[in-house]
Each structure stands twice: as structure tokens, then as C-alpha cells.
């Protein structure tokens, strides 16, 4: 990739860029944005053009999209590992320095708002009228503004990583699966009776 293909450096990436990628602004996106900024500060991170920054998330929520946009940990580069464990927790690694932190949302940070919770159900099931939908947007925007104006240190506890830095992404040789005849990454195949079989065929040919 030539240098002029790299779109923007990190200092120019904003919450608006995250919205453009994610499709909307929401509390989750703002929380992920706050985590990315805090990690950037704690670990001296730059936007990851390759795999210099790695993140393991413990949620698959809207938060993850901010991390992708702000730090360049993306689904395709092998430096984003998404776990669906339902925790607002993110372990960031700086491959250059070897430093890492696990940011865990403080247990008392998220205060549920009964009015918002009641409206959310209506809005997402399409049962809200215009006034209720507008009120929900207003409350949601307020929550986003609150998050964006709160320092990361008040949102997240800084903890030790629970696991070592993941290995770098591998580039595979391709082989031909003997069952389907399709080209497939060698290291992603399963060995059955001395033959390397693609995962689809392993799961469907039993
Ligand atoms: Zn969202
Ligand atoms: Zn196959």
C-alpha cells in the first residue's frame, strides 16, 4: 500500500468518523470511542496501519466499531479479536513497546434511565410514535454527550491483561480441498485420515 492511500492519521480521526463507519451515534459507540482514546493515551498508540496495535474485546456491541475507526484494529487485519462475552472490556496491546492494558467499564458508570429503557423497547419494535421517538433520540444524544465529556479514567478501570498478546496474523498457503475441489487456506483445514479437508466439508460430510 502506498503512503498516499492511508486516509487520515489518528489525530484527525474523530467521533464523526466513527459515526460515518457505524451508521449512527449511540451510547455504545461513544463508550468505544472513550476506550480507544484512553488506550491511545495510556499506551502511546498511533493509528494501526498494520498490526502495531491489537485489541481483544469482550463484547460484540456498537463499541467495537469506534475501536476499529480510531485505532485501526480491524476485522480484516488480524488485530481485532471480538468475543461475545457481554462485558464492556477491551484489552489493548502496543506491539512496538510490549505494553498492554485491559480497560473495564466501572461497575457504577452505567446508570440505567427508566424512561429511556421504556422508550427503547417501543422504538426498536416500531411501536413508538413520533414524539416518543424524538424523546428517545434526545435522551440518547444526552447520554452520548455525557460520555464524550467524561475523562476515560472516570469511565474505565485500568486492569492487567488476562492473556498474552495474540500471535501475528498468518498468511496461508492455499491447497485444494480433496472433497469440494475448492482452494482453501492450508492452516485453516482439518486433517482427516491424513488428508487436509476444508472446514465446510468436515462439518457437512460426516
Ligand atoms: Zn450503535
Ligand atoms: Zn471442501
From TrEMBL:
Q: Which SUPFAM superfamilies match?
A: FwdE-like
Boundaries of every Formylmethanofuran dehydrogenase subunit E domain copy: 21-156
Q: Name one Pfam family in it.
A: FmdE
The parts of the chain that form a coiled coil are none
Mind telling me which PANTHER family this protein's record contains?
DEHYDROGENASE, DEHYDROGENASE-RELATED
Question: What is the name of this protein?
Answer: Formylmethanofuran dehydrogenase subunit E domain-containing protein
Which species is listed as the source?
A: Methanimicrococcus hongohii
Amino acid at each position: 500500500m502506498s503512503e498516499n492511500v492511508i486516509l487520515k492519521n489518528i489525530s484527525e480521526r474523530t467521533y464523526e468518523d466513527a459515526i460515518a463507519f457505524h451508521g449512527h451515534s449511540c451510547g455504545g459507540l461513544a463508550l468505544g470511542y472513550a476506550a480507544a482514546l484512553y488506550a491511545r493515551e495510556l499506551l502511546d498508540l498511533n493509528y494501526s496501519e498494520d498490526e502495531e496495535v491489537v485489541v481483544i474485546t469482550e463484547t460484540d456491541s456498537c463499541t467495537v466499531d469506534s475501536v476499529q475507526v480510531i485505532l485501526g484494529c480491524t476485522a480484516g487485519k488480524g488485530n481485532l479479536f471480538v468475543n461475545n462475552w457481554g462485558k464492556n472490556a477491551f484489552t489493548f496491546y502496543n506491539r512496538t513497546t510490549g505494553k498492554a492494558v485491559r480497560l473495564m467499564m466501572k461497575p457504577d458508570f452505567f446508570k440505567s434511565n427508566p424512561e429511556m429503557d421504556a422508550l427503547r423497547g417501543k422504538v426498536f419494535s416500531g411501536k413508538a410514535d413520533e414524539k416518543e421517538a424524538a424523546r428517545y433520540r434526545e435522551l440518547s444524544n444526552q447520554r452520548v454527550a455525557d460520555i464524550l465529556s467524561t475523562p476515560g479514567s472516570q469511565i474505565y478501570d485500568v486492569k492487567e491483561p488476562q492473556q498474552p498478546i495474540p500471535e501475528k496474523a498468518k498468511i496461508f498457503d492455499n491447497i485444494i480441498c480433496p472433497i469440494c475441489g475448492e482452494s482453501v487456506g492450508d492452516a485453516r483445514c482439518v486433517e482427516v485420515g491424513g488428508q487436509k479437508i476444508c472446514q465446510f466439508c468436515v462439518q457437512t460430510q460426516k
